[in-house]
Specification:
Number of helices: 13
Low-confidence stretches: 555-571
Order of helices and strands: HHHEEHEEEHEEEEHHEHEEHEEHHHEEH
Bound molecules: adenosine-5'-diphosphate
Structural class: alpha+beta
Strand order of the largest sheet: 2-1-5-4-3
Strand content: 15-25%
Helix content: 40-55%
């Protein structure tokens, strides 16, 4: 394929990748982020959360009132049942009412009205209060007048209700300050229909304020917490001020009610405690604050998610680009390798046919042809060995056979079999091999192959300065095998990549020289399998030095431990 065509195909692939990423990942991700973002903004504007909480609060207050009413109704109903019959005389009635008062300290006054008049009895302890006494006197007159005038209508009105009771709550004065007093009127059971007979009682304001309200509020707050958890609520009861707002000094409040900050929801009582109202809020925070924190947190989470998506995309793009580069390297590899196989085969065939035809007369020429055939088949063998090794490594089936080896001898032998070829190509071979090296545990074939690959590269990538140096020495507990040349050198940028499979530097000479891009990746695999490594030092235009290090096995030098043991025993 021509380079122009290949380039076109590459950019087409890249375009396809970007399109796929865009349609499959980027667009939905961007859509998701946008949808969430606008949803959040909408949320903030419409105060949906706030409204939902307020609805919930309304419901809690309605339930609170219902519970209070239920309890009050039951208490009044119970007392109503104990009211004296109409036909008993006045003293007996008074006596019975006194008895009720005595048994039920939560009642401050109790009244009985019929055609014989009004009986109004009060708790003796309450009578000590001057204001209470005055109020009681006023009340006796007021009630008598009122019942005389409107008793009948009042009674009829009450009888039409599901619960025949009329409640009245209003402010009153006591020696200890202003209070709210709740009282109730009801028809007496079994009273003859034609007569106006009424009963009534006033709740003790101290009982309502200090016992009834606090207990009920506590119950509701606790129930709400055990049912739903979350932020604790606080409820209070108080009058509505003249300008319509809830009193800043409520009559009663549950634990956690702070005086500052407006209540979230205020609900007026509808029956028993009518002019008063219930108010609710969160302990220590407000719905607005909660909503703001929620939106704020959501934005942060959205931001983090967006970052993660962008990060993921960058990562995917990076990985796909890498895979694409690898795919390109692979296709280059296939064309390189086929060429590499074809050239030596063609040469071998050509020279063998020429020899077969018997047209070569001189011995020297024949020799020359034999040498070419041998050299080309060696090249072929090296290439096939590399490919086989590579495929074994890729499949994870490459095995090494480590044997104690005189490494100097191994290097010398390998060089010997290449010496002729090296010198034939006009290379100066500088060989410096230390002889007193410790024996190493190595795979002989693999190390020889690594050395051959390095030598072949040095020969392949050298220009006019044909120099090949091979050094073997020991340094800092490792044996180092160096192969150096004065060739084209390697760009700094390429130095870290040349050990990757299929990689070939972009130098024109490299491209004109055929190769598979496998040699150095094999050398690295071999050196790592021996517990060593390979590094390169190179300057473009000046040459390269490849250093393969092999660790010296500790046991090869240190005497086995049992010898020490024997020595100790002997002494
Ligand atoms: P190949 O030689 O078949 O291309 P290698 O894996 O042996 O594959 O080498 C990878 C690349 O490293 C080569 O293509 C070349 O660019 C570079 N390289 C290796 N050895 C040398 C060297 N001695 N001098 C300059 N470049 C080299």
């Amino acid at each position: 394929m021509s380079p122009k065509k290949r380039k076109l195909l590459g950019s087409f692939n890249r375009y396809k990748l970007i399109l796929t990423l865009g349609v499959a990942v980027l667009l939905p991700a961007a859509g998701l982020i946008y949808a969430n973002y606008s949803q959040l903004q909408l949320f903030e504007r419409d105060k949906v959360l706030e409204a939902a909480i307020h609805r919930d609060f309304q419901e809690i207050l309605a339930i609170t009132e219902k519970r209070m009413n239920k309890k009050v109704y039951a208490m009044v109903e119970d007392i109503r049942g104990q009211f004296p019959d109409c036909d008993c005389d006045e003293t007996e009635k008074e006596h019975k009412l006194d008895h009720i008062l005595e048994k039920n300290p939560w009642i401050s006054s109790i009244l009985y009205y019929d055609d014989k008049g009004l009986i109004l009895q009060s708790q003796p302890s309450k009578m000590e209060d001057k204001h209470f006494r005055e109020e009681r006197e006023r009340m006796a007159d007021d009630y008598k007048g009122w019942f005389n005038l409107e008793g009948k209508g009042l009674l009829e009105g009450m009888r039409k209700k599901i619960r025949p009771m009329n409640f009245y709550t209003g402010p009153a004065e006591r020696s200890y300050g202003e209070v709210y007093v709740t009282s109730v009127l009801f028809p007496i059971p079994h009273a003859p229909m034609g007569k106006v007979v009424l009963g009534g009682l006033a709740f003790d304001d101290v009982y309502i304020k200090n016992t009834f309200f606090p207990e009920m509020l506590k119950e509701v707050v606790e129930d709400k917490y055990t049912e739903q958890g979350g932020n604790r609520i606080a409820i209070s009861i108080g009058p509505i001020e003249t300008e319509g707002s809830f009193s800043m000094n409520p009559l009663v409040a549950s634990a956690g009610w702070d005086a500052e900050g407006k209540p979230e929801v205020v609900r007026k009582f509808e029956d028993v405690f009518r002019p008063l109202a219930l108010a609710i809020k969160y302990q220590g925070t407000s719905v607005r604050e909660l909503g703001e924190t929620w939106v704020h947190n959501s934005f942060i989470i959205l931001g983090i998610l967006s970052l993660m998506i962008v990060g993921g995309l960058v990562l995917i793009k990076h990985m796909v680009s890498k895979e694409m580069a690898l795919a390109k390297l692979k296709s280059d590899f296939v064309s390189n390798v086929s060429h590499e196989l074809r050239t030596p085969l063609a040469l071998i065939r050509l020279y063998a046919e020429t020899l077969e035809l018997g047209r070569i007369s001189t011995q020297d020429k024949k020799h020359e042809y034999y040498r070419i055939i041998r050299k080309e088949s060696e090249r072929l063998t090296a290439l096939i060995n590399n490919i086989l090794d590579f495929s074994r490594i890729e499949a994870g089936r490459k095995e090494y056979e480590f044997r104690e080896t005189d490494i100097a001898e191994l290097v010398r032998n390998t060089l010997d079999s290449y010496r002729y070829q090296i010198e034939q190509q006009g290379f100066e071979l500088d060989e410096r091999i230390d002889s007193n090296l410790p024996p190493l545990e190595v795979d002989r074939e693999a190390i020889a192959r690594a050395l051959v690959n390095l030598i072949n590269n040095a020969l392949k990538y050298s220009g006019d300065d044909k120099f090949l140096g091979v050094r073997l020495y020991r340094e800092n507990g490792v044996v180092k095998l160096e192969v150096l040349d004065h060739g084209i050198g390697i760009d700094r940028h390429d130095q870290s990549k040349i050990f990757e499979k299929f990689y070939r530097a972009g130098d024109p000479l490299v491209h004109n020289t055929k190769g598979s891009g496998l040699g150095l990746s094999l050398v690295r695999h071999i050196s790592q399998a021996h517990g060593g490594d390979i590094v390169v030092e190179s300057m473009p235009g000046r040459g390269s030095k490849f250093i393969l290090s092999l660790p010296v096995k500790q046991t090869a030098e240190v005497a086995p431990p049992h010898q020490f043991a024997e020595g100790t025993m002997a002494s």
